[in-house]
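Form 7-S
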Amino acid sequence: MNKSERTSATLLQRIDELLIPHHPFLKIEDEVYFIGEYTNGKRAEFSPMNRLIFNYKKETKWKGSPHWGYKASAIKEVADSFRKSILQTSGFPDRIKHALLVPVPPSKAKDHPEHDDRNVQMLQNLAPTGNIHELIVQKTSRQPLHESNRRDPQKLEEYYFLNETDLCKEFTEIWLFDDILRHGTHFRAIHNLLRRRFPKVKIVGFFVARSVQHSPLL
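Output:
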């Protein structure tokens, strides 16, 4: 079974020097992890991970329909996968005690009818009593990056602001959680924003999957 055929892993996999060329906005010193691989351009039926991502990102227009139950199940599955992986990765069970868990916001702002808080719900499932905070907030809605050719971390950063309201518990690390790692644009933009505000805090990225291209057997 290859990585793209499973929805969870015993250990989190780190983006290393072999994988980083596929995610051009990441830097070698970044600490970024993922659970599995999502095959770009393929339908949900292609692999369990593709199916999980499709259901996890199911649009809010399906809310209230039988299809919405698949999204709720996917959110729980992602949380369970992260929990298992974190608990079984050396050092992480202790590190999470001192980490601020931050969901990466979607492209639609909170006042937009298509706003999707899947990453917030996932973290609430992952760590019900954990130090979770919506630190990064989307100012205004925008086009999703995967639907646009504009991938500029500096431009994307302009859409974000820091929500430090009720941010009282101390932390030594900020753990960012998102669904798919493609170019790393979101991570770079948020990392830059957080680094200026919290220069001494370790910033770590966690993704459900990294995006890969389909390579058919010859």
